[in-house]
Amino acid sequence: MDCRVVVEAAIPVYDVGSADEAVRIAISKTGDMLNPDLNYVEISMGTRSCPHCGEDMEPAFVAADEALVALELEMTVFNVEDEEHASRIARKEIGQRMQKVPLDIIGVETIDSDDDTDSESESESESGSESESESGSESVESPEKTDQAEEPDEDLLPDFQDLMEEN
């Protein structure tokens, strides 16, 4: 099962004059924290509303040239057991790169896998996220392969100490 997870992040921004400037800086700052490891995470402005009247507000709260910006980080998590598992994975992956930034899961949406024929081309283009999760198992296998390849080569080349003893 694949899921699309939306995480809300509260990004602090310093020395700003307006809410628009704060949002631009927060998006840039978040992109710097996430890239290149999580370049498949989509960053967008968060939505805020007044808790009393429900009126929509700007995603940034500015006071004394400092701002707190609400951003939504959206990522697809592949091969999960359930929605809670997907939210834990997304929170861990994003949280490791954005330390000391409060995160909250806004929503988890299950992606239909009925369109496998249509999504094969999309999954190939988004295979960066899958290949990174699979690369952990590949990196475990690759040292074994290199060890096997190096053992025959060791017999062909003399050791450094053997060369020094001959001289």
UniProtKB/TrEMBL annotation:
<feature type="compositionally biased region" description="Acidic residues">
    <location>
        <begin position="149"/>
        <end position="167"/>
    </location>
</feature>
<dbReference type="Pfam" id="PF04475">
    <property type="entry name" value="DUF555"/>
</dbReference>
<feature type="region of interest" description="Disordered">
    <location>
        <begin position="105"/>
        <end position="167"/>
    </location>
</feature>
<feature type="compositionally biased region" description="Acidic residues">
    <location>
        <begin position="111"/>
        <end position="135"/>
    </location>
</feature>
<protein>
    <recommendedName>
        <fullName>UPF0212 protein MW046_00405</fullName>
    </recommendedName>
</protein>
<dbReference type="InterPro" id="IPR007564">
    <property type="entry name" value="UPF0212"/>
</dbReference>
<comment type="similarity">
    <text>Belongs to the UPF0212 family.</text>
</comment>
